[in-house]
Write a structure and sequence with these properties.
Residues 12-120 form the N-acetyltransferase domain. It holds the Pfam family Acetyltransf_3. This is N-acetyltransferase. GO terms for molecular function: protein-N-terminal-alanine acetyltransferase activity. The protein is α+β, with helices and mostly antiparallel strands. It folds into two domains: 8-113, Aminopeptidase, CATH 3.40.630.30; 123-157, no CATH class. Helix content is 26%, strand content 31%. It has helices spanning 23-30, 33-36, 47-62, 115-121, 150-156; strands spanning 8-9, 13-16, 67-73, 81-89, 94-101, 125-136, 139-147. The strands form two sheets. Strands 1-2-3-4-5 form a five-stranded antiparallel beta sheet, covered by helices on one side. Strands 6-7 form a two-stranded antiparallel sheet. A hairpin with a 3-residue loop joins β1 (8-9) and β2. The protein starts with 7 loop residues before the first strand and ends in a 7-residue tail after the last helix.
């Protein structure tokens, strides 16, 4: 297996591999009830919880069922959130997208509160609502399902012959 992990850079951010040394920063935001409200888990309480999360990120990468990037600002190396793909099913060309961000960075256009609008703007289609799909913090939560198919992408992008 390759040790290669893709690093993604934008004007303000670096998306990088999450390592054991990031556990303290992960605990900081994943122990926040507001951050965890839509994450599907109880807020973390120990560094061990964060270390287990990092181990899970590594396991989904090794199983090729997902990948999770740590979100950092370009001017610092501290993890302020994570994003990635999960439940990748290669045979069906399908995966789920998820992210969470430290509340300290909400409102800065990193993981926009209007993410549903952003998803729609990028061609995703709202397919439906999964009612009471996840049980979190003592209650059932609904989950919206969006899709982006190859033919949708092809329709949105100009082809070489059309340029």
């Amino acid at each position: 297996m390759s040790n290669y992990f893709p690093i993604i850079k934008t004007k303000r951010l670096i998306l990088r591999e999450i390592v054991a040394e990031d556990a303290g920063n992960i605990l900081k935001y994943l122990s926040d009830k507001e951050v965890m409200k839509h994450y599907g888990l109880e807020p973390f309480t120990t560094v061990k919880d964060a270390s287990n999360e990092i181990a899970w990120y590594k396991s989904i990468l090794n199983e090729k069922s997902g990948i999770r990037w740590g979100i950092t600002l370009k001017e610092q190396d501290d993890i302020i959130g994570s994003c990635g793909f999960l439940n990748r099913v290669h045979n069906h060309c399908r995966a789920e997208i998820g992210y969470e961000l430290s509340k300290d960075y909400w409102g800065n256009g990193i993981a926009n509160a209007a993410s549903q609008k952003l998803i729609k703007k990028n061609g995703f289609i709202k397919e439906g609502l999964l009612r009471s799909y996840e049980f979190t913090c003592g209650k059932f939560d609904d989950l919206y399902m969006y899709s982006l198919l190859k033919q949708d992408v092809d329709r949105l992008q100009p082809h070489e012959g059309n340029i």
